[in-house]
């Protein structure tokens, strides 16, 4: 299954190339409970066609109706949805939350096409950029970005939207924890790839939207499949899979690398990786072992939850003691 941001951008490009004006919308902020996070996108046309989501269905109908009525004619508009919105439609989200949404009206010209093509290439590429948007002047530009941090920042009229390679999770080896980890990650919008050469392990592992590679995880990781928005987790307790995956993983720009095991098992693994894998202290320090947040997890589902939560923590640039 293609990452939703890619679907939005590819649709926006196709419609613009066909000569259509499009409205590209981005969630700027959420207050209270909200089904979509800052940075989530939707693209729409005047006829009501759309791809993506701002609220999981709570406000899309109202928004599309307002486009059809001729609203959002300005090139940039910020609109608030939800309870307590004084300057925007009184549409209550069932979850009781509030959304601030940036609406960009994009006409089908060369400037729009260039901007969308840069966005699309960034999602498919190896580095992150920040879209720097000035609501006052209407100016838009791209600036270099660090790999981790908030997807959206706002300072008065200046909005900064982080865009980068679509989040990818590579799971080294199939286990009960792998199953739940893949399910959680897909629900969070990750592209998920599971690697395992064992036919007996792959048998019965079939999750919609999850790619399965029947090769050693280390071979897939070393093939160039890892970019800076990739997390790599090893979840089998089998050193023949896990150790080799870690040796290859530390040679990549992955933002998160982790392997499952107790504290004692992790200490023994670190010794093996130094002795047999030739990894130095800096390489070892990149590996989260034991993997995941310390939630006193016992079941496969709880362990998977701790793993995915820790991946998100690192991606958001949050320290453990800030949780």
Automatic annotation (TrEMBL):
Q: Domain named XdhC Rossmann: which ranges?
A: 169-311
Specify the XdhC- CoxI domain's residue ranges.
15-69
Any single Pfam family the record assigns to this protein: XdhC_C
Q: What is this protein called?
A: XdhC family protein
Q: Where is the signal peptide?
A: none
| Species | Salinicola rhizosphaerae
Source species, domain of life: Bacteria
């Amino acid at each position: 299954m293609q990452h939703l941001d890619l679907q939005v951008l590819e649709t926006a490009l196709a419609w613009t190339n066909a000569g259509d004006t499009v409205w590209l919308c981005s969630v700027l902020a959420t207050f209270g409970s909200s089904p979509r996070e800052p940075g989530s996108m939707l693209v729409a046309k005047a006829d009501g066609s759309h791809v993506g989501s701002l609220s999981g269905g709570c406000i899309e109908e109202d928004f599309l109706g307002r486009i059809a009525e001729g609203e959002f004619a300005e090139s940039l508009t910020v609109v608030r949805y939800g309870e307590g919105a004084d300057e925007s439609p009184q549409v209550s989200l069932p979850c009781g939350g509030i959304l601030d949404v940036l609406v960009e009206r994009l006409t089908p010209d060369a400037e729009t096409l260039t901007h969308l093509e840069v966005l699309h290439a960034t999602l498919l590429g190896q580095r992150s950029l920040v879209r720097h948007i000035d609501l006052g002047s209407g100016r838009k530009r791209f600036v270099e970005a660090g790999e981790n941090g908030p997807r959206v920042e706002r300072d008065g009229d200046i909005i900064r939207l982080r865009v980068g390679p679509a989040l990818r999770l590579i799971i080294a080896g199939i286990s009960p924890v792998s199953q739940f980890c893949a399910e959680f990650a897909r629900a969070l919008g990750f592209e998920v790839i599971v690697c395992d050469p064992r036919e007996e392990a792959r048998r019965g592992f079939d999750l919609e939207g999850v790619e399965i590679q029947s090769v050693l995880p280390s071979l897939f990781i070393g093939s160039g499949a890892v970019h800076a928005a990739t997390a790599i987790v090893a979840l089998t307790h089998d050193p023949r899979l896990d150790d080799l995956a870690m040796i290859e993983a530390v040679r990549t720009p992955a933002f998160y690398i982790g392997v499952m095991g107790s504290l004692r098992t992790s200490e023994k693994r670190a010794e093996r990786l130094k002795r047999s894998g030739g990894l130095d202290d800096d390489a070892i320090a990149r590996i989260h072992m034991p993997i995941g947040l310390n939630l006193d997890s016992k079941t496969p589902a709880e362990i998977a939850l701790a793993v995915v939560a820790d991946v998100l923590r690192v991606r958001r640039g949050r320290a453990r003691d800030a949780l």
